[in-house]
Write a structure and sequence with these properties.
By secondary structure, the chain is an alpha/beta fold. Helices cover about 50% and strands about 10% of the residues. A 6-stranded parallel beta sheet has the order 1-8-5-4-2-3, sandwiched between helices. Helix 7 crosses helix 10 and helix 7 packs parallel to helix 12. The longest helix has 21 residues. The radius of gyration is 20 Å and the shape is globular. The chain starts with 11 loop residues before the first strand and ends with a helix. About 50% of the residues are buried.
Length: about 350
């Protein structure tokens, strides 16, 4: 029995063409009581430049909602927005943007107890519907904080089709990572350090399967975007039900966090860093990585570490650092301690197979 017998689910998940232009109609269908309530739209300066027309349209649909350009994706920024929301008696927060905006808006809504509507401009990771927000705390240090999942998620397929391909690849990487994350979760349960929630496990596996076995390979097709949107939301809900990130985050995520924390100059998105981590994690787990390698090739997702500026030495060090990232989180790294020779072999295999 999971200790989290109560969990929240979004009231609405709409994945439609031009959804941003009729977001008010979508909300009226599901949560009519919030239409007409005082609303704040949160986005970033550069996105407001690119999507000016859409954002202004959403603002007028929600009664002339104030449009707020956030600065950093930080804890301080989220608290500052929450203060504004409480003081000005704002009832609804709409986050429009990528992961940075959505996490900041989600946490601000969580603190201020406002209704949160999530409107992603790209599908880069599963923070879309997750009960966590990753925010900067001091300097570049980041922390994963618990929060409430969105009340509504509105995905405009046209926005995603026109988003940078790297963002969609990143969302694919975060979904495929569930393969190794679920293996690690089972391992932790066998060692008695965690409990498996069967429903959360099944949801996460469905999220992986829907993308991995998808017949539609064109990432710009509406079918694929709909499947990826749902897969990322399923991942978020799996975490909400499990009460932790275990259904979606294992040793491959520890590797990605090691890059983010110790190699901030490496330019790689979270989802792509996670995709890189799945291949070694798969090998450490004794699983055959050839299926994943072939999937990445099909989608032109590069898992050549050198293409991101990661040398052999850095790669080995990243895996060494990965062990220290989340003390207490049991993964395959508790069982194996690959030496430099094995890590170099994996590094070169990834270069050749990319």
């Amino acid at each position: 029995m999971n200790q989290h017998t109560r969990f929240n689910l979004p009231i609405c998940l709409a994945v439609e063409e031009d959804a941003f232009f009729h977001s008010d109609e979508i909300i009226k269908r599901y949560i009519p009581e919030i239409i007409g309530q005082k609303t704040l739209i949160i986005s970033e300066e550069f996105l407001m430049g690119i999507y000016k027309e859409k954002i202004c349209d959403i603002s007028s649909d929600f009664g002339g909602a104030e449009i707020y350009a956030m600065g950093s994706a930080s804890f301080d920024e989220a608290v500052s927005i929450a203060k504004k929301v409480c003081v000005e008696e704002i009832k609804v927060i709409i986050g429009i943007g990528g992961g940075r905006v959505l996490d900041t808006a989600k946490y601000a809504a969580h603190i201020s107890k406002a209704v949160y509507i999530c409107m992603p401009t790209s599908l880069s990771n599963d923070s879309l519907a997750s009960p966590f927000a990753v925010l900067e705390t001091y300097g570049k240090a980041r922390k994963t904080l618990d929060c409430k999942i969105p009340t509504a998620i509105i995905v405009d397929t046209n926005m995603i089709i026109n988003a940078p391909q790297e963002q969609t690849l990143s969302g694919i990487g975060d979904t495929i990572a569930k393969h190794t994350a679920l293996f690690d979760w089972k391992l932790a349960a066998e060692k008695g350090s965690d409990k498996i929630d069967d429903f959360a496990y099944a949801l996460s596996r469905m999220s992986f399967d829907s993308v991995y076995h998808c017949d539609q390979k064109d990432m710009k097709s509406r079918v694929f975007i709909r499947i990826l949107s749902r897969a990322l939301v399923m991942g978020g809900l799996a975490m909400e039900i499990a009460g932790s990130s275990r259904p979606c985050s294992g040793s491959e995520h520890l590797f990605a966090h090691a890059i983010e924390e110790h190699y901030p100059d490496i330019r790689i998105t979270h989802g792509l860093a996670v995709a890189l981590g799945t291949i070694p994690a798969c090998i450490f787990q004794g699983q055959d990585p050839s299926g994943l390698l072939s999937f990445y090739r099909t989608h032109s997702l590069s898992i050549d570490p050198s293409s991101y500026g990661i040398s052999e030495e850095m790669f080995a060090d990243m895996w060494e650092k990965a062990r220290t990232i989340r003390p207490g989180r049991v993964t395959v790294l508790e069982n194996v301690h690959p030496d430099r020779v094995q890590l170099n072999e994996i590094y070169h295999r990834m270069k050749e197979e990319a």
